[in-house]
């Protein structure tokens, strides 16, 4: 029996997150296991008057690429992919893994090489998005693999996913509009401040955000959502941060990450597990050791770590600071093929100061 929440999710994504318009070229990307959501999105897009097309992937293809591709093949960018990046009006990417550890055996250097080859394409997509020429959204369709990562049954994980998206509400759109209003108050306040200091276990980090734009993420680019973020001044981060949860990259976990910043650059990087991967990614290019994003997670309907960044970076009471590329719409200028979100739990023994004033304590703003 079809889960009615899938249809509800498709409706919210098409009409609220992406706001599809008649005549728009709309790409739906996802794996075959996400077929129920892909069909629902395709139907809703047609009803909205858009022109949908699909990019359906099969599990295991990336693993084959990293195992058998030559360096030339690994760095090849199809002109069809480049053309899509220029022509599509809206796109949605669906996370739906059959095996989240498929790339655990991939050579980190080859993964970094492939990612770096796509740097210009990534920058072009981000530029079009910043110019409001491209709408994009990332969502998730629950699978057994994702449920296993979160230490849940599939049924419990489905409840977790759809609950985080407020799909149990009678009117999810109205619920997200309320979230948007509440988060905008925080974004407006932070926009008046410059120096931010994070204090917590293993963390004493200062960065500056004066003149940058705080983005209120309330369901348009990510779904579910619930954060405010910006790009810090590139040379402003100083101090240390110890990330509370494993940092996951291509299914591989790096645990106990500690970064020490000096004048914006991570000059020290250690991990209890995954040190080689951590260093290989931070050395991907000259921008990879700088912060591209600083953010506060504000979705208090998400309170547990699930090993999926779409949810984990939104955990109410956390902050995440990503190394690598900035989002141009924030005013950030850091460029890198990497954008790697890492999460710090601020729910206990933690404080945040803005221009010297205590504004956040143990996971909540007190402004």
Short note summarizing the structure:
The protein has 367 residues and is of the alpha+beta class.
Number of domains: 2
What integer value in Å does the Rg equal?
A: 20 Å
Structural class: alpha+beta
- Work out the oligomeric state of the chains in this entry: single chain
Largest sheet: 8 strands, antiparallel
Q: Quick check: average pLDDT? A: 95
Q: Strand order, biggest sheet?
A: 14-13-10-6-5-19-20-21
The end-to-end span amounts to: 47 Å
Q: What is the tally of beta strands?
A: 21
Question: Low-confidence parts lasting 5 or more residues at pLDDT below 50?
Answer: none
Strand content: 25-35%
Number of contiguous helices: 12
The gross shape turns out to be: globular
Description of the structure:
The protein is of the alpha+beta class and 367 residues long. The protein has two domains: 4-164, Thermophilic metalloprotease-like (3-Layer(aba) Sandwich), CATH 3.40.1830; 172-365, no CATH class. It is 32% helix and 27% strand. The chain is built from twelve helices and 21 strands. Strand 5 and strand 6 (203-208) form a beta hairpin. Helix 1 (4-17) crosses helix 2. The longest helix is centred in the middle third of the chain and has 19 residues, at 172-190. The radius of gyration is 20 Å and the shape is globular.
